[in-house]
Write a structure and sequence with these properties.
Layout: H1 6-36, E1 45-48, E2 58-61, E3 70-74, H2 86-101, H3 110-124, E4 133-139, E5 145-152, H4 164-169, H5 187-211, H6 220-242
Parallel strand pairs: 1-3
Antiparallel strand pairs: 2-3, 4-5
Length: about 250
């Protein structure tokens, strides 16, 4: 199979999500050159209307030596703006880098801690310490050692680490990093277009199901009525996303 190139990446994203897809790829390429020395391989960028695994606003699915590589960004159908932003894209690109290097890519990995310290310094000029997660027995109210808690290991020079929650949610949550909205495209226009496409797809499926409803039945009049109502609903949903001024 031919190598997946940046041109392929942009063509795929533009075909699927229009202007938002184009700008998202351009932002990925910008970050790749700026923060990863251009070493990341082009990867399909996917926008989904479903929160992956319930709560994640994005995730990186990656098999360096096989197929199935994606970065997936979330755009809920019930919202008018993107939940994910360029901070989220950079987060997933760090995961991509670690996958491509064959290193553990989790938020608890040494590679993740090392990279986010370097990137925070590059972007904000601020030096942070990111310690690994360790357990520690703390003193109870009676002065004796009591329960075991999990903390981020301090630096040898005494500097405290950011918390495990901050490590997992980097570069959000007080890191002083704001890279803007996803792809630097105003979501009030583009997100509605993407959402309209998803809604239109949903109603096309309804139309198909209506067409095969009770196949073999001779109740043609009732089937025709269902088709008409479904088609009308699909048309209204589609025009709501693509109408004038959207």
């Amino acid at each position: 199979m031919a190598k997946f190139t940046l041109v392929d990446m942009e063509r795929f994203a533009t075909e699927a999500w229009g202007e938002l897809g184009t700008h998202m790829v351009k932002k990925w390429a910008e970050f790749n050159e700026k923060y990863f020395r251009g070493k990341l391989r082009p990867v399909p960028l996917v926008i989904t209307n479903t929160l992956p695994f319930g709560k994640r606003i994005a995730f990186c699915s990656y098999s360096p030596d096989t197929y199935g590589r994606t970065i997936t960004i979330n755009l809920p159908k019930a919202h008018t703006v993107l939940v994910a932003d360029n901070n989220t894209l950079l987060d997933e690109m760090v995961h991509q880098m670690l996958f491509e290097r064959g290193e553990p890519a989790g938020h608890d990995s040494e590679g993740w801690r090392r990279k986010i310290m370097r990137l925070t310094k590059m972007i904000t000029g601020k030096q942070i310490w990111v310690g690994k997660s360790i357990t520690k027995r703390v003193e109870g109210s009676d002065g004796k050692l009591g329960k075991v808690i999990r903390i981020s290991k301090p630096h040898e020079d005494g500097r405290t680490s950011i918390t495990q929650m901050e490590i997992a949610r980097w570069p959000h949550d007080g890191m002083g990093i704001d890279l803007g909205r996803l792809g630097d495209v105003t979501p009030s226009f583009t997100a509605r277009k993407v959402r309209a496409r998803a809604l239109a797809g949903d109603h096309i499926m309804k139309l198909y199901r209506a067409m095969i409803w009770k196949r073999g039945s001779d109740r043609l009049g009732q089937r025709t009525s269902v088709l008409a109502e479904t088609l009308k609903e699909a048309k209204e949903k589609f025009e709501a996303g693509y109408g004038e001024g959207n």
